Design the sequence.
């Protein structure tokens, strides 16, 4: 896929109806030969819109107006390029817990949670957040994670979590202002509710930090999983992570995680993991597939804002 096609797909399937600013930017990049040439000089894994736009936001650059974005990016490309090369997208959206909760609450309790690609670990606290599925609320406190649930009955209670750990190539620390600033920069411009949610979730994590381990999802997973208490149900999970991983490595990861004692929850893009059969997605937007132990259960939106059950 060409760089222009990558940005066109991002505009049409990810940003449309969710972030007008990023839809405008991505669409403009598809026609901007200067920016396309600069992006082409980056390694393929560093050409994604979220990474470039997030870095420009982090540096204080304009992302509302495509012309201003072009001028700023071209003028400051050496600094932007260095940041892009040194960073990875680590969107840590606590809202994704809302689509994980129906599965987590149904597993044998208590749980030992191990998140792959944990970033700062915000999704390791599904038992500490409150949820609103239409008129149905679960739990109390802040943040309240809103989710539209279709063809499923929302859970009535929260899971019991007795151990939580995360594995990431570059774990982030919510008590570090620089790490928190990067997480903030990855939130799309208009999403003030997500920015407030980040701060609220970060406060929860800072009060009781998880075990975050720097490591590889294949090589280091078994050793970390072995630390989970044996009297709890081990749950290895990940959301919107594996598309950053080469296909052959994904296959190896699936083999490793399937060999562990416990359960595996995947919440990934349509083409990231192989499933025998899937129904049609409920719309043209970009959807994830929520699966338990390799069995697909539901379509979910990437920030946890909706779940459509089909299992």
Sequence:
């Amino acid at each position: 896929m060409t760089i222009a096609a990558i940005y066109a797909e991002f505009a049409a399937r990810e940003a449309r109806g969710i972030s007008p600013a990023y839809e405008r930017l991505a669409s403009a990049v598809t026609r901007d030969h200067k920016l396309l040439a600069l992006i082409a000089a980056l390694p393929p894994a560093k050409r994604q819109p979220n990474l470039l736009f997030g870095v420009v936001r982090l540096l204080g650059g304009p992302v509302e107006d495509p012309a201003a974005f072009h001028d700023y990016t071209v003028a400051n490309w050496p600094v932007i390029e260095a940041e892009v090369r040194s960073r990875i997208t680590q969107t840590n959206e606590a809202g994704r817990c809302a689509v994980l909760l129906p599965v987590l609450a149904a597993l044998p309790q208590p749980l030992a949670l191990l998140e792959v690609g944990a970033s700062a670990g915000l999704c390791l606290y599904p038992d500490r957040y409150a949820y609103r599925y239409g008129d149905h609320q679960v739990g109390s406190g802040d943040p309240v994670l809103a989710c539209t649930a279709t063809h499923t009955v929302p859970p009535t209670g929260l899971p019991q979590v007795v151990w939580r750990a995360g594995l990431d190539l570059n774990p982030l620390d919510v008590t570090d202002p620089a790490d928190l600033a990067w997480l903030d920069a990855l939130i799309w411009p208009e999403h003030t509710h997500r920015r407030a949610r980040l701060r609220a979730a970060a406060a929860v994590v800072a009060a009781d930090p998880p075990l975050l381990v720097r490591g590889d999802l294949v090589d280091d997973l078994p050793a970390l999983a072995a630390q989970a208490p044996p009297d709890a149900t081990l749950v290895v999970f990940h959301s919107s992570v594996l598309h950053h991983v080469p296909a052959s490595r994904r296959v190896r990861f699936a083999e490793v995680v399937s060999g562990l004692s416990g359960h595996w929850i995947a919440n990934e893009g349509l083409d990231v993991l192989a499933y025998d059969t899937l129904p049609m997605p409920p719309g043209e937007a970009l959807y994830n597939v929520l699966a338990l132990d390799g069995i697909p259960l539901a379509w979910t939106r990437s920030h946890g804002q909706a779940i459509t059950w089909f299992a």
Summary: The two ends are 32 Å apart (CA to CA). The mean pLDDT is 95. The first helix runs from residue 3 to 15. The longest strand covers residues 161-168.
